[in-house]
Specification:
Strand content: 5-15%
Order of helices and strands: EEEHHHHHHEE
Shape: elongated
């Protein structure tokens, strides 16, 4: 959180967990968040809250609500595979390997999936792309609800670039909470 000293008019940052007051990063020309980072490395209340949030035992506005896409129930569950779970798993393979959606239609990959899961429909590139759109819309709604309930400021850093020899543009985004 941020606060202003009413007597001096100087900006300060306040730890949400232990309420320690630190100088704001913009107090000098270096604008370094180093003191804040060092404080969070030693703040026991922050570490406890993060640990509990990661283990699913803590759920309030201070917890990290963003779950890791690669640690969802499809990866850890031992239940029977169905076509939807198989599509999710193939999507994870494609994302983690930075593969083209057309790899879902690789004949050897399809043969492997049919041998491993004969009762499931094997996904194709269109179903994988549709699944990614569905999952991204769900995550977008979750992010909106988390940001709506956020009681502090959010820093958003954007970077845009184009590939050499191409007109393809990319957008990179960092959202530290």
């Amino acid at each position: 959180m941020e606060g202003v000293d009413p007597k001096k008019g100087t900006a300060h940052c306040i730890c949400k967990y232990c309420k320690m007051v630190l100088r704001h990063p913009n107090h000098d020309r270096h604008m370094s968040p180093g003191p804040l980072t060092r404080h969070l490395e030693t703040c026991l209340k922050y570490k406890t809250a993060r640990s509990e949030a990661q283990h699913g035992r803590y759920n309030d506005n201070n917890a990290d609500h963003f779950h890791n896409f690669f640690e969802s129930e499809c990866v850890t569950s031992n239940s029977i595979m169905n076509s939807d779970r198989l599509c999710d798993q193939v999507l994870r393979i494609i994302i983690s390997g930075n593969l083209s959606f057309s790899q879902a239609e690789n004949p050897e990959f399809i043969a492997l999936l049919k041998n491993a899961y004969p009762s499931c429909t094997t996904p194709n590139r269109r179903s994988i792309a549709a699944r990614l759109k569905k999952v991204s819309k769900e995550e977008q709604q979750k992010l909106k609800s988390v940001l709506t309930g956020n009681d502090s400021k959010v820093s958003l850093a954007l970077d845009v670039w184009t590939a050499r020899g191409s007109r393809v543009a990319f957008l990179g985004m960092t959202l530290p909470l």
